[in-house]
Amino acid sequence: MALTYADLIEVDLGRLGSAVADWGSTVKGLKALAENARTGMLAKSDAARWAGVNATVTRGFVAETAKEIADLHAEAGSIHHVLDDAHTELVSLQKQIRAAQAEAQKWGISVQDYGDGTVHCVYPHIRGDTDVRTTEENTARDELAGRINRILAHAAEIDASVARALNKSHGNDAHNASHSSYESLDDAQAERAVELAKLGPDMSDKQYLELNSIMKFNARDSDFSTDFYKSLGGPMDALEFYGRMSLDGTIGDDKHRLTLVRQLQKNMGLALASATDPDNRSHLPASWSSEFRKLGTQQIPLYPAGSAPYGYQLLGGMLRYGNYDARFINPIAEHIVQLHRKDPYRFMGNKPMAAGSDLDWGFNPSGRNGAGYDPLTSVLEGLGHSPEAAKKFFTDAPTVYREDGTVDKNATLAADFYFAELNRTDFEWAPDSLAHAGGEGAEHAREMGPDALGHALEAATTGAAWDADPPVLRRDEQTAVLMEQVIDRYNVASEGGPPPDGMKDSLARMGAAYIDDLNYSLMDFGDTGDALGRERIFGDSSDGSTRTAFGQEEARNFMMLVAGDREGYQTLSAAHQVYTASGLASHEDNRHDGLAFAHNSAKANGILDESRAHQIRVDFTDGTAAANLEMAKQGEWRKTLMTGVVTAVAAGGTALVLGPAAGIVATTAVPVLLGTGASAVSTAYGNHTMQYLEDNAYKNNPEVLRDVQRLEDVGEHGAWLPVYNYADAIGMTQAEKLDLNREIEGSYRDGKDAISDMEKASS
């Protein structure tokens, strides 16, 4: 019978707590009894000098009795450990589901219990109501349903694991105590997970679901993950298991089996990250990293006759998931890049070459960025989910590795080797695809590596996984230095050439995460920024970081490159509007600094708008009508820019979060301005900024905008309207607003002219 929503909310866990306490007392009593039996009657029996049949029988009986008492103690201890852990976890889950219930009541949402361990959330119909819900209301309903169902699934997994562990501890034998003995519930769950894993591809779908369920809720628990990987055997055993399951799940067209192996890939990656973090209480020995490097260049037979992939191809599939410690993943990443430099196609030779091969057959069941034959793409994806490791990878001094993964202490590489190497214009990315040259999908085969590189750089510069939801900015001096390298490499004046298409979305999100520093850098006409107090005007940002000057030209050139692309323009424009709102809100008590900030913001607006307009003109050189249509599309997007874009204050209050709305295809963190002397952003401040956006954002008012048809017109409105509202907030007179309007127009035109001048120079 399934554990239901009502069960978890209503169950009296106090009774389970009492049982835990009773078993604790039983364990203590049996411990004393076992000790007395060992040091008392057993010791006396062993020491007695007697012989004969009676002596032999009695001595055996005494020994067996002492053993049974010790076994009873072990069994009681196992039961106590399992029940104690289960009680702790279930209490936590019950609090979470009761909090969800309260949230549902707040929104007026009805939670319908299906009775099978799942729920459905709906807004009940009220007579006279249209039943039309806002995006926010629908999002809240869907998030709540997902959260409750995850809690229920977790509770059900605990319930099943406890029942299984108690059964194994007891053994169903009233005359023989102590069978399986567990130190924790994690111990029992890891044992069951490995039992299932040992079945390999012979697992039934039901067993597969059970394995994934256990791992899903325990992968991040280092006690479980460490036990799991140790019980599999060693690094070789882990690779073999993953490889066989990966091939089994990706061959053919069994969609259900593919879904299962995708879940397993994620679970094994998360568990490996947890198990290899030396800072966790339980963790695998450091030798696992060196052993993986040794196996990385060796072919590992998965079947007596068949595929023998390289170790790095197998490991790469797991590395794509999890936040890895730099001490584990970076030596592997360094080794892989160095191997790639010697031979970019080293790992491509064992791809299936037969016509008609499944395009997803391989070691990356997820299907994202490659089939899993190129470990470089895989390890870059791993760094993209490991921000601290990614930062160290690009900024720490490189270590040189030999073919077998051992350190070559006599060799050196340049300090910026990895950034320079991976961002070379002529860097040769291996086509990690089974698509035949010229066939469908082949044209994108070389875009997957640059996309993964963008993810790694994104994590390294922002301090958050590239796809974190929500992302939390964690910038420091090292991330700023790396972002400066990115800006120097990728801009319209770069000798290194334009970025690969696959990197553009990451560059845009990096720009959004550094929109404060880009604005700060623009306020430096004639190298006077510092003298005129830009440090004071821009203050400290919401993640506690200080401002970095990239250079006025460098910032402008980077913005022109990113905003030339449609999605990049949308991302940067949305980020800039959020940042502008926060800055004007923070300067409401300082007119001079607020107006200086507003002028600079208008200039940045002009740069972004003209950058996109320039690219549209380039793209539609021979089609004026098409160019005007594209301008109109961009204008329409800007009209509704703020509709649903600001969704939350990120955890810890380090940034506002954009997306998904108005073309923002992924959640993006944007720093907000705190103002001079502020040390940390508060929820109240974040809410104030969000309210300011809601009150003063550019509205899609048909009467005001009916004549707006093109990007430039909308851009002018977008540059002026927030400043106009700011002028109202600080009490400007009508005459002062007229003067300010002309000045803001000039600042906006300055930004546009700077891009136009570059356009003329380039042509």
Mean pLDDT: 81
Structure classification: mainly alpha
Q: End-to-end span in angstroms?
A: 73 Å
Contiguous helical run count: 29
Strand order of the largest sheet: 4-5-6
Low-confidence stretches: 640-653, 660-665, 676-685, 698-710
Number of strands: 7
Overview of the structural elements:
The protein is mainly alpha-helical and 763 residues long. The chain has helices at residues 5-10, 13-39, 41-47, 53-107, 135-170, 185-197, 205-216, 222-232, 235-250, 255-275, 287-296, 311-319, 326-342, 375-384, 387-395, 417-422, 448-462, 477-489, 504-513, 515-522, 534-538, 552-564, 566-586, 591-619, 624-639, 683-696, 702-705, 711-729, 734-762; strands at residues 110-113, 119-122, 540-541, 646-649, 656-658, 668-670, 673-675. The chain has a three-stranded antiparallel β-sheet with strand order 4-5-6. The protein has a two-stranded antiparallel ribbon with strand order 1-2. Strands 3-7 form a two-stranded antiparallel sheet. Helix 22 (552-564) packs across helix 24. Residues 640-653, 660-665, 676-685 and 698-710 have low confidence and may be disordered.
Task: Please name the defining characteristics of this protein.
763 residues; mainly alpha; three-stranded antiparallel sheet
Topology (SSEs and partners):
Elements: H1 5-10, H2 13-39, H3 41-47, H4 53-107, E1 110-113, E2 119-122, H5 135-170, H6 185-197, H7 205-216, H8 222-232, H9 235-250, H10 255-275, H11 287-296, H12 311-319, H13 326-342, H14 375-384, H15 387-395, H16 417-422, H17 448-462, H18 477-489, H19 504-513, H20 515-522, H21 534-538, E3 540-541, H22 552-564, H23 566-586, H24 591-619, H25 624-639, E4 646-649, E5 656-658, E6 668-670, E7 673-675, H26 683-696, H27 702-705, H28 711-729, H29 734-762
Antiparallel strand pairs: 1-2, 3-7, 4-5, 5-6
Helix pairs in contact: 2-3, 2-4, 3-4, 4-5, 5-6, 6-7, 6-8, 7-10, 8-10, 9-10, 9-12, 11-12, 11-13, 12-14, 13-14, 13-15, 14-17, 15-17, 17-18, 17-19, 19-22, 19-23, 20-22, 22-23, 22-24, 23-24, 23-26, 23-28, 24-25, 24-28, 24-29, 25-28, 28-29
